[in-house]
Amino acid sequence: MKQRDTHAFVSSSYSCRQFNTRTNIFKFLTQSISFQDRQKSTESITSSSTTHARAAVSTNNDNKLEAILNNLGMSISQWKIHNNASSSLTSKRRRRKTPKTTLEEEYKLSNRQRRGQLSAHDSVKDHIQERIKVKAVHAASSLDTKHMLSIFDKSHHPVNHVFGKTFLIVQLPSLDQAQPRFVAMFNFGSIVFFNVSEQDIAYFLDQSKVYSKNPIPRGLERKEFFELAIAPYMRNEAYTNSVCAVVKNMNVHNVSIVSNIMAQTVALDSHNDTVDELLSTFESINDTVRTTAKFTSLEKEQLFKIVAQNNSLLIDMIAKLGIKNKSDYAWNLTQYERLHEGMRHEFEIDPRFEHIEFKLNMIQDNAKFFLEILQNQKTDTLEWIIIILITFECVLMILEMSGLGPGLLADSEVATMIKEYIHKK
């Protein structure tokens, strides 16, 4: 009987397959499932199946594993859920390196990951109704959002608008009722367009220069692209994946959160370019000092400008961009918090800010070193001037005490000046 039971062991090993175009998720491994385990309780069955059947199952091997698990009194879906056999993203997406995958695949992956199981999901086509293109542009160092409403003429008359502390959101007349159009403008110079044509984008960028400070020439602006997917029948709150942000509807709250992150990301790109220019200038100063061991007046002026701009950039990122602040809607309405955090994670806001901050701190430390050298040089010069004046005064006192002074300098103008000086003393 024991020998028969021994031959009844089912031993199989399943090779690793690519279950999805995006991930190599599961290794299939089923080993030594004994028929004696049938009479055990559900907990012991679960423990045994967990020990001897790891990872999830490919399509070709589902039938075999299902037959084994049926003998144990467990369904394949229960085994998958217990073994945490849900699809997951194997690697974090780097910015601007979107994988070659469709929106449908991304939507399914995100839902499976959220629910923690491989249960069948409704087709994404039943959920995603519209896809809105989003484009962010960093147009200037700052914008006067209080007066930006005046750039909208009769053909672009706003349907609605919302003022915030740092932004202005304008809803434009819709060309299609199913696809509303929005423009979000921020006081730190970024403009975000939702479902706006390239022709209208060019028009708004040209008009915005009237109320902007230090506008960036056309074609040199930092830009970012994204998509907003509208899924009215989705059962959970809004979320973000590497392809798009999925929301139930396109309202001011969703537009505010998405546009805020998009505006921050292009502003960070622009600030990063400025910091790189500062590093390049600082490198040239280092080369000159290394070669000549001296500071010229031009290099001193450049150094002071670098220090001032360095401090200005750090203040702008923290105060104007609000990198460390949470959106008001995400703070007050919990259903929008997931969208806000997902967007921040997708565009790597915190790591990029820390990278720029590291560069700024490096510039600041090196600038402090050179400023200390300049201060020491200035101190040395003043000390020598004081020494010369003291020496001159000592010489005059010696001449006066010896009686030789009036005879040597009797008829000279210098003598007259010296006498007046001594008289005052």
Automatic annotation (TrEMBL):
Please report the stretch or stretches of sequence annotated as the DUF155 domain: 183-356
Pfam families attached to this UniProt entry: DUF155
The entry's cellular-component GO terms read: mitochondrion
Question: Known InterPro entries for this protein?
Answer: DUF155, RMD1/Sad1-interacting
Q: Which family does it belong to?
A: Belongs to the RMD1/sif2 family.
Q: What is this protein called?
A: DUF155 domain-containing protein
* Taxonomic lineage: Eukaryota, Sar, Stramenopiles, Ochrophyta, Bacillariophyta
